[in-house]
User: Which sequence fits this backbone?
């Protein structure tokens, strides 16, 4: 099956599994409320009667200065308050990925909330191990491979005669970084899919099997992955351009809120497309 056919089949499956989007969007909203609401009431309680509180809706350096001055002794706690939600968000998506891939693999089953969360729990610890393994991959790319790749670019930049050469070198270096990271991400996506489709609990064995699977098919799997990446980039740029046309004012804030939800749903849907295209590629070449 050609890359374009797999891409189209992935789109079709993602559309059929659209109920997953509702679940994912609701979980995102709930998580955001849990994180944002306590902070909102803290700010309101401390600043609603202050001069700087009048500018909360528009953001003011004076208000930010008030917060920094008042809470300067608890800065580590504030940093922790940012890092912990970030870590919880990562764990949340490790959890949700099990439900996404599990429901995609259950092709003939009707999607319901019970089945979705059952798969989330079923694959959670396997996917935690995969995520920890993926950290090693990212460290190898960013800490080792990029240092090697940077050597000719540093020589290029050093001998550059103008700003344009410097800009081109930096952009090429950035592009190579993105491409290498995409390989790591794609590989561990297939490890997750392998764990689900093969009903395996052995992450190391699944990683070894995935390495063998992709070794002879890399130049088919990677272009498919990059095709979805291009779609994501094009859609994101279009949404960003259209979002900049939203007028200011109260009405604009209402429109902006709904526009942000559209952006979130789009990114969640593309996430489904990544997994569905990879799922169909794996099935087409493995079974």
Assistant:
């Amino acid at each position: 099956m050609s890359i374009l056919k797999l891409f189209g089949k992935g789109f079709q499956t993602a559309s059929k599994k659209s109920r997953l989007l509702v679940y994912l969007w609701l979980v995102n909203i709930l998580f955001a409320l849990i994180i944002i609401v306590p902070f909102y009431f803290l700010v309101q309680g401390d600043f609603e009667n202050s001069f700087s509180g009048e500018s909360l809706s528009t953001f003011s350096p004076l208000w930010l200065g008030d917060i920094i001055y008042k809470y300067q002794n608890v800065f580590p706690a504030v940093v922790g308050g940012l890092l912990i939600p970030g870590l919880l968000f990562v764990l949340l998506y490790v959890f949700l990925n099990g439900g996404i891939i599990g429901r995609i693999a259950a092709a003939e089953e009707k999607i319901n909330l019970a089945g979705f969360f059952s798969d989330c729990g079923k694959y959670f610890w396997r996917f935690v191990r995969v995520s920890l393994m993926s950290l090693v991959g990212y460290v190898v790319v960013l800490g080792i491979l990029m240092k090697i790749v940077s050597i000719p670019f540093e020589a290029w930049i050093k001998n550059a005669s103008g700003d344009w050469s410097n800009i081109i070198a930096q952009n090429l270096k950035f592009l190579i970084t993105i491409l290498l990271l995409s390989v790591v991400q794609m590989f561990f996506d297939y490890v997750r899919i392998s764990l689900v489709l093969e009903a395996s609990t052995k992450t190391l064995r699944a990683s070894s099997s995935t390495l063998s699977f992709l070794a002879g098919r890399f130049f088919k799997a990677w272009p498919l992955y990059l095709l979805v990446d291009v779609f994501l980039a094009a859609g994101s740029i279009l949404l960003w351009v259209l979002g900049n046309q939203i007028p200011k004012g109260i009405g604009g804030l209402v429109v902006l809120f709904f526009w942000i939800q559209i952006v979130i749903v789009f990114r969640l849907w593309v996430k489904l497309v990544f997994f569905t295209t990879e799922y169909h590629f794996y099935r087409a070449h493995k079974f």
